[in-house]
Specification:
By secondary structure, the protein is mostly helical. It has one domain (1-85). 78% of the residues lie in helices and 0% in strands. It has helices spanning 2-20, 34-55, 58-84. Helix 2 crosses helix 3. It is globular.
Amino acid sequence: MLIPMLALLLTVAACVLLYLSHRHQGWLRQPLPAWPARASGAGLLLLALACGLSYYSPLTAVCAWLMVQMLAFSTLPLLSLLRRGHG
């Protein structure tokens, strides 16, 4: 049960890094430096996929990996609006 949770946390952390490196992010005054944050995010995404593939079947792992990314990338901008008090 530890490996699926690790895959979930790695995927969310990678999505946060990728989101915070974008110029239109709403959490920080200035985005994170593009090269290190995006490289780290991509590396964490691949590591999360490897964790998922070691526990689930390939189809299940890729589907869950993509679904978590969709959820994270769609809620991160909304959370920044709620944090600012615009929501």
